[in-house]
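== Folding task for one protein ==

=== Format: two labelled lines per protein ===

==== Paired sequence and structure tokens ====
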Amino acid sequence: MSVGLARSLALALLFACTPHTQAEPEAEELKVAPMSPTELAPRIATPPVIVPLPEPEFAAAPGHLEDGHYYVKLRPQQLQDFVAALPIAAERERALALVSTGLGLQLRSIDDLGLERDGVITGTLMRPVAPRIAAVREQIQQIAAAPAGDPAAIPPLPPELLRDAGAMTYHNRLHIPVRDPEILLALIRKQERASGLCERLPHDACVASDSATILLRRDGGALVVDAFVQLYSNPDVAADDGRVEAAVAAMAARPAKLAALASLAGDFALYIHGATIPAIDDIFALGELADTLAVTPSGQRRAVVDARLAEHAALLRLRDTRRLFAGLSVGAALDPSDVRITMSWEPADLTAAQALEHLFAPASDGLPGPSRAALCDGALLCWQLPPLPRLSGFDELALGDYAGQDRLGPTIAAAGQMGLVVLAVETWPNQLGALERWSLAGGRDAGVARTFFELAGGVQGAGGMLRPGATGETVHYARFHQQELGLVRSLVTVGGATFADVPVEGLERPLAAAALGDRITGYVAREPDEKTGWIIAADHLDRARWLLTQAPRELTTAPTFFIGSDDLAGLLAQIGPAGAANFATWTAGRKLSVIGEFNRARPRVQIALTRAAPGQ
């Protein structure tokens, strides 16, 4: 295995008012004066007392070890049945042929690998193991600080650095239930063995190269696979001692004790643990530097080292805040006719769980809108949104570099790809806090942003639909109280549109319209009580009239949001990605629903792909 392939494998593993008759305010009136530090201070709550999560009381899965980054559970038979039901026969056959050639085995199903048909594979991936990482970091910094006699020369790196860097690895553990262990053992034994390294490690089968080591061991009715990927490897340096040291230490790891692992369910489940992100990036950064410095002139080494270590420092700053999430779980039930996927963020502690329920609580009870059935039955796409939480509650998370968008933006840019992982897995609520703090600052942009945030917090329910047809039928709406309704009209006017009264037969309320372009017209309507109203965007007046006079109404309180389609095949054909047509036969007759619930201790998003009617 080449160095590039090993690094690619590691990256692959790492890797989402006033009534309408009021005069409109001038644009200048939308500016908001900056808040002084004394005005800002009371908005930041006293840091809460952190209550840790209780120790889990379940037995750890045999393949789950402490300090992992990814934790997986997989039912191979169910995955095979699901893939077999997809309309990708040609692609499937090509993949099987490629794998068969590489393994030297005629592979038709998992039975050919000797796996237990009802077994569950559990595993831990990307465990950072680096017993000599402190020495590597020190030596790299010394090299960067050394004066360059000839700036264009490329001095060789010290052998000690190369040996220590070779000991940095990512440990991957799989526990695979098998009915016949000899099939997989024989496959490994056919591969090229590395002289000396395998003999020093416990195994029933082993294959090793300068950049990876794979060990298989029998464990009752299962095989245990330990795979080590080296982030730096140099075949010219005898690094066996360091690699053996790292492997022996890794295989002695204790079982994982993470509460999130108790909820892993489905035919495929994955948990991404945020605590290991710094160590993973540290190993990758130092391995990358060792590899790069070997071909970098001495006059450029300082700049190369400083740039990469600055990236790692930015990553650490992204995590140096009050994080509400410990990780992200994904689970999938892969019945060929009913696919259900759940994503949930795991609270960092009990205090965080309580804070999440409070922060994402709706700002109000909302106002009635069209029922979900009225919007969604037969729709190509429909959506509903109850009242949103007010962004003002998130400023208590605006700590560290999240204290302002002007600080956060450069940090995100400097942190690289792993910085995006931190945001997605651990700190995206803190980003909302940064937006809130930024909107309280001075300047026109911040003032406009604050207006929009307050307007979003004033939404009393929203939704919309797109129905199939030659020209389609489009209507979207948002419910507001009188004050926010006038503010929306003002913002639209500032944007250049003009509302004019539209008489509508049979409509017992004022209606004003403004052209928004692309066949879409904006409408503002007040309810007879003069206290509430609607903002509507539709492709025809009839759609607005239907919404106001004919659609049955209900109060949308939960979930946080809903997106659905009664015609998944038609939706993909119209707005799907390239290649979606290949799945037309599988998606025909299927419905899509996406439900997001965030005002809970474990915020989650549920995706379901189901038959449109039973028996289809």
